[in-house]
Amino acid sequence: MALSNSFRNLWKEATFRKRVTAVIIDEAHCIDEWGGDNFRPQYRKIDELRLYMGQEVPFVACTATAATSTFEVIWKTLGFGSRPFWGLDVGCERTNLTYIIRELKYEKNPIFDVINTILPAVLDSNTKPEDINKSLLYFDSESVCGEAIKVIKKVLPPHLRGLVFSYSSTISVRGKTAIWDNFKAGHFRIICATDAAGMGCNVPDIRHTVVFGVPKFPKSISGVVQRWGRTARNRNISGTCQFLVPKWAFRPSAENVPQKPETKRSVKQREGIQPALEKFINLQADGSRQGKVCLVEYVT
Fold first, then answer.
1. Is residue 65 a part of any domain in this protein?
2. 125-146 tens-digit pLDDT
3. What's the domain range around 188?
4. 3-class secondary structure for the chain?
5. I want to staple 145 with a disulfide (CB 3.0 to 4.6 A). Which of 10, 35, 192, 291 is the partner?
6. Are 291 and 259 in contact (CB under 8 A)?
């Protein structure tokens, strides 16, 4: 939008430029994650705005996850370095969240791995909407989202089936806003979403966020943490963040020696995981690490 022809004409207007005090780029990690391929190549061209604004108008980039490699891409793309630069790292510690990484059992329909953890133990005609904790479930595609919704609705009593909804990039802007508004108001309690569910999501009382590592594995730990970051934004409540991955993502440990040797295919698949994410998944297999660990060690 900022680089569209109509917006370019606006940037050329001196009266408009005089009113601009700063250019803010929120979710700046998307410059790296989405700008490097055919999805959003324009993100790598944001520095063109400096041709209109000059060096006097500050550019501000905000993100919750910026590994060193991502920071370097942001730095280069936004043309930092020619003017004084200030960086502020507030950290990503969330003491009200519990993180769980476990093996995915039902790869064909992964909702079966978590349905008992996100729904009340008793579901009947007396169950109220507020008895169901708000949950945000991340799937790889719209079709998998659809299958998950079918399963959840079959489990729920008829009067609660309207509480489950899907979210994807194909929905209109107005539709996306309506979904978040209904989710925030409690009219929806479970959202089955693709990676499109991120920007614009500011629901403070999400209790469960689940990321499924099939059929495509997340590209980076930053992607997983970004999704987890939607959980329990109200720091007065607790939330659970789950990451379900195939068996091959786990290294054999001294405590869990497999009965059969690993296949070459499993080893190769695990080698394809981003190193920081692979290390985070296999904390338990790393005998040198005991007790609590800091998530920021793996995101930076």
1. yes
2. 999 999 999 999 999 899 999 9
3. 97-245
4. CCCCHHHHHHHCCHHHHHHCCCEEECCCCHHHHCCCCCCCHHHHHHHHHHHHHCCCCCEEECCCCCCHHHHHHHHHHCCCCCCCCCCCCCCCCCCCEEEEEEECCCCCCHHHHCHHHHCCCCCCCCCCHHHCCCEEEECCCHHHHHHHHHHHHHHCCHHHHHHEEEECCCCCHHHHHHHHHHHHHCCCCEEEECCCCECECCCCCCCEEEEECCCCCCCCHHHHHHHHCCCCCCCCCCEEEEEEECHHHCCCCCCCCCCCCCCHHHHHHHHCCCHHHHHHHCCCCCCCCCCCCCCHHHHC
5. 192
6. no
**How far apart (Å, rounded) are the C-alpha atoms in residues 271 and 153?**
38
Query: Are residues 49 and 121 located together in one domain of the fold?
Result: no
Decide: 191 and 152 in contact? Cβ < 8 Å: no
Total domains, the chain: 2
> Would residue 252 count as lying in a domain?
no
Sheet containing 208-212: order of strands? 97-103, 239-245, 208-212, 135-138, 190-193, 164-167
Same domain, 127 and 46: no
Tokens 């942001």 sit on residue:
74
Give, rounded to a whole angstrom, the gap between the first and last alpha carbons of the chain.
30
Q: Is residue 291 part of a domain?
A: no
- The answer to whether the predicted template modeling score (pTM) of the entire model surpasses 0.70 is yes
Same domain, 65 and 101: no
- Pairing between β-strand 135-138 and β-strand 239-245 as defined by DSSP bridges: unpaired
Q: Which of 215, 230, 245 is the last residue of a domain?
A: 245
- Asked if residue 137 lies in contact with residue 191, where contact means CB atoms within 8 angstroms, the answer is yes
Q: Looking at the structure, tell me whether residues 25 and 159 fall in a common domain.
A: no
Q: Which portions of the chain are predicted below pLDDT 50?
A: 288-291
Whether residue 195 is found in the same domain as residue 60: no
* Structure confidence by residue, pLDDT tens digits, 202-234: 899 999 999 999 878 888 888 898 899 999 999
